[in-house]
Structures are given as structure tokens and as C-alpha cells.
Amino acid sequence: MSDAMTILQSLERPWEEVHLARAAEQIALLYGYRRFALFTLPAADDNRASLSFLFGNWELSFLAAYEKLGLLRFSPVIRALKAGPAPFVWDVEMLHGAEEEGEPNPPAHLLNSHGFHSGVYVPIQGMTTFQGALAFAGEGPPLSEERAAELQLPAFAIFGMLAACRFEENRKSNPLSTRERDCLKLAMLGKTSSEIGTILSLSEYTISQYLSSATRKVNASNRTHAVAIAAQMGYLS
């Protein structure tokens, strides 16, 4: 077992996001980096989609500047990540060119000035599509392909553990009432308002009111959307 996986397996359950962040930082240091970040690509089929920051130890000011320069939409990185499961190792000059006196190069200057001289993006692939990436960055030299490949299993583990942390947090802060959850669970099974009313011994009108209230609470556009959001957020568990 790799040192990175040993660090992750040492975390006590139930996992907490703050402890997972410390573990991810320890793993970054193992590979000579200081910074880590986990990203998703919400619209995988949209060529204009950008990486979405989920979790990491990037400073907020740096993240804001990074996003303002459009670096979350930098297509060569996204194309490399979507192309296959191999980690993408980079340095600043490869991505943005060298900084030269009298030649403005805002992306390179931003990265260099914050110690992001090199790094690696480890893609997290589903069965059919790219879902996100774990990124490490720092001041050391780029990793070898063999060393970068060691991060594939930890990347999947961190991604899954973060999902579990947030699922549990959402479940505990569930905004839905018991009846709203009951209605959404039955709607998830394809039941109509009339059928749900019969099962719960309530009127169809009352069921519609519960479903409308649940839809508003999860900021969904309709009951089908509400079911999907509530299930993903852990509200129906």
C-alpha cells in the first residue's frame, strides 16, 4: 500500500472534511507540493464548461485571480484530462510560456508569484466520462510519469471520501420535513400525486402542496428535478 493510501486509511469514521483536508495536504507534501485542490467539470459535454473548485487549500485571493484570468477554462488542461486516465504533469512554461522582461504574461506571473511552478492534475474518470481532477502544485520539479501514476488511487479515494463527508453533512442539515421526504421518495418510484395520496392517506391537493414546498426548498425547477437534487444531497436517506 502506498504512503498516500496509508494516510487516507488512517482517518477515523465518520470522515470529516477538515480531517480529509489535512490528509490531502500531507499527501501533497509527500510529493513535494504545498497546494492541493479538487475540481469537478459540471458540464462534461460542454466545450465551454470550466472546472469547478470543490475543495482545497488555495488562498481565496489566488483562486479569485485564477478564475478572473480564465484559467479554470484553460482548454489544453481540460482536453488532456478528458482524453484519458493518465495524470497530466505540467510546469508554468509548458502551459503559459516563460515570463520575459517587458513582456506581460499575467497567467505565468500569477502562478510563479504564488509558488505554483509545477504540478499535476490527476483525472477522476467515470465509466464513460471525465468527472473531475485532483490537482497538486508547488515549487519543486515536475513529477515523473511513474510517480504521478501513484496518485491515481488516492485521487479516487479523496473524491469519494469528500462526497461521503458532504452527503452526511447535508443529511444532518436536511431542510425537508418528514412528509416532504416521504412524498419525494414515492415520487422517485414513479408514483403520481394521486397514488402518493392513497399510500399516505392524504388528499392529492395536500400531496401537491408538499411536493411544491420541497421543490422550493431545494431550489429545483420541478418535482423530477427536486427528487434528483434531494437524492444527491442525501436528503432522502
Automatic annotation (TrEMBL):
<feature type="domain" description="HTH luxR-type">
    <location>
        <begin position="169"/>
        <end position="234"/>
    </location>
</feature>
<dbReference type="InterPro" id="IPR036693">
    <property type="entry name" value="TF_LuxR_autoind-bd_dom_sf"/>
</dbReference>
<dbReference type="InterPro" id="IPR000792">
    <property type="entry name" value="Tscrpt_reg_LuxR_C"/>
</dbReference>
<dbReference type="InterPro" id="IPR016032">
    <property type="entry name" value="Sig_transdc_resp-reg_C-effctor"/>
</dbReference>
<dbReference type="Pfam" id="PF00196">
    <property type="entry name" value="GerE"/>
</dbReference>
<dbReference type="InterPro" id="IPR036388">
    <property type="entry name" value="WH-like_DNA-bd_sf"/>
</dbReference>
<keyword id="KW-0805">Transcription regulation</keyword>
<keyword id="KW-0804">Transcription</keyword>
<protein>
    <submittedName>
        <fullName>Transcriptional regulator</fullName>
    </submittedName>
</protein>
<dbReference type="GO" id="GO:0006355">
    <property type="term" value="P:regulation of DNA-templated transcription"/>
</dbReference>
<dbReference type="Pfam" id="PF03472">
    <property type="entry name" value="Autoind_bind"/>
</dbReference>
<keyword id="KW-0238">DNA-binding</keyword>
<dbReference type="GO" id="GO:0003677">
    <property type="term" value="F:DNA binding"/>
</dbReference>
<dbReference type="InterPro" id="IPR005143">
    <property type="entry name" value="TF_LuxR_autoind-bd_dom"/>
</dbReference>
